[in-house]
Amino acid sequence: MDLPFIVATLTRRGLLTPGRPIRVASQLGALRKWGWSLAGELRQAAARDPGRAAVVDEQGVELTYQELLDRAERLARSMRAGLGVQAGDRIGVLCRNHHGLIEAVVAAMLLGADAVLVNTGLSAAQLTTVAEEQSLRVLVHDAEFAERVLGLPADVQRVDERGQEELIAGALPGDQLQPPERDGRTIVLTSGTTGAPKGARRPTPHGFGPLVSIIDRIPLHARDTVLIAAPLFHTWGYAALQVAFALRSTIVLHRRFDPAATVAALAAQPCDALFAVPVMLQRLLEVPAPSPRPPLKVVAVSGSALPGGLAPKFMDAYGDVLYNLYGSTEVSWASIAGPADLRAAPTTAGRPPHGTRLEILDDAGEPVRDGRVGRIFVGNEMLFEGYTSGAGRETHDGLLNTGDLGRVNGDGLLFVDGRADDMIVSGGENVFPSEVEDLLARLPQVREAAVIGVPDPEYGQRLAAFLALHPGETLDPDAVREYVRHYLARFSVPRDVIFVKYLPRNATGKVLSRELRRYYG
């Protein structure tokens, strides 16, 4: 990425404003010594703005950047002295959104250990599998998960919230931490919507490039107040945390997402930005609209596709502040859609940001024409380093296969048609469930919709639609089928229309297709 672009972007976002020389020097020294990991970003923020509020929780308790760094350093020293954690070990972190998760991840990186971000929605059996596959040395967990971790292997040391506080309080003075011989990595577990989650090794940034790619397109500024509602263990929530530290933001965290509490916090703090997943926006629209509007400049979402009609509906309520980032654990980001893009085409994934390459390729690896569906390949500075199992992903000319199918229109906007393995063949026709989902989501009676492929003895596969309706609403299955038939081809009409109270989702808001298939069976 070219230096003039980096400097111009950092200047626009307020990161190159003058400061006290000794603090600026300390800030740059921290980055030079510790790098751009989460630990390095926390150190640079504490060096430049030590007294600024770093984290505020739902009870209003706050920690400054210096206090947060001190706690993470004390935890790291106690982990090394008391638990024997060394560079190369793996520390699992099973926490909701609060400062304890941040302290545990930073402590691991200060020691050169890998932090494994564990999905809070995993079952006890899945936790045991993750602990074994990731060779966890320690698991830091919230008190609420005490029973769920009982079955972990005996050699995994467990540290609950009380134990974490005791380690922080009992840290011996002195014993200054030095940069480890190896950089600690962050390992994010894939969503596991169709099977067991896999560990994906996330790279450490090597400069300002990744930050600049994001904030050039999403107008976040230094010292913004940011509410991160997306789970921090998820790629998007963790990316929001990295960006917030780089901007020396005040971060507002709630352990659980509650739409009414979120609306109240956006106004009370007050917040400049909100990081969320799309289903959270749907929930925000179900509570009374705030008056006056919260002073939001940015609402940034990622993690799953925006349902049809959600973008304009949300912007009508909260203003043209919505930014949709399309990416994955493996490729980080691929494209970003801004408010103007979403007004013009509500289901678009936008355009690649600066420094990102995006190609739509056929099965032979050749580019397809505009408007034609193909496989989405992406290249940028933050492609993952492979799965912890040793497996990788298909690459082509330095680009990584996202596993999604999509197309680019004549204006350069990307549209994602869905996972390649979600596409079904019904009677010889290729059908994308996401197209039908978007259409059904526009029905005023429908709260949320999901469409999957199920076996069919005559056509090979057919579509089944699962609809959760708003309270008090009703729909007739035949009317639903006729509605789809009016807008789409006959092979896109769901043969089965099933009404459910709610759609099964994981902790990041993605619909669990395997649960729907089990329900159907």
Q: How do the strands and helices of this protein lay out in sequence?
A:
Elements: H1 3-12, H2 21-34, H3 38-48, E1 53-56, E2 62-64, H4 65-82, E3 90-94, H5 99-110, E4 114-117, H6 124-133, E5 138-141, E6 157-159, H7 161-169, E7 186-189, E8 199-202, H8 209-217, E9 225-228, H9 235-246, E10 250-252, H10 259-268, E11 273-276, H11 278-284, E12 298-301, H12 310-318, E13 322-328, E14 332-337, H13 339-344, E15 357-361, E16 374-379, E17 395-396, E18 399-408, E19 414-419, E20 424-426, E21 429-431, H14 433-441, E22 446-456, E23 460-469, H15 477-487, E24 496-499, H16 513-520
Parallel strand pairs: 1-10, 3-4, 3-5, 4-7, 5-6, 9-10, 9-11, 11-12, 12-13, 23-24
Antiparallel strand pairs: 1-2, 7-8, 13-14, 15-16, 16-18, 17-18, 18-19, 20-21, 22-23
Helix pairs in contact: 2-3, 3-4, 3-9, 4-5, 4-7
